[in-house]
Amino acid sequence: MDDVGGIHLCTWAATRSVLRTYLGVLVVLHLVLRAEASSVSKSCEKDCLSGKCINGTCACDHGWVGDQCQHCQGRFK
């Protein structure tokens, strides 16, 4: 018998092969996108004292300057 439940065996084997290929492509695509996303956001080498680390550099709060936002920039309201 060449068919199981009304489906020809050669058609079923071809369908399984195509599904396996699509699954492999999806897994590789997922891994590439995951690796790309994790490399985009960098952490700061040193702690930001009065600010936030954004993409590897400190974004200082209002009134603070320096590579670590460690210096007060005078009076401010």
Automatic annotation (TrEMBL):
Signal peptide: 1-37
Organism per entry: Zoarces viviparus (Viviparous eelpout)
The protein, known as: EGF-like domain-containing protein
Keywords: Signal
Keyword match Signal: yes
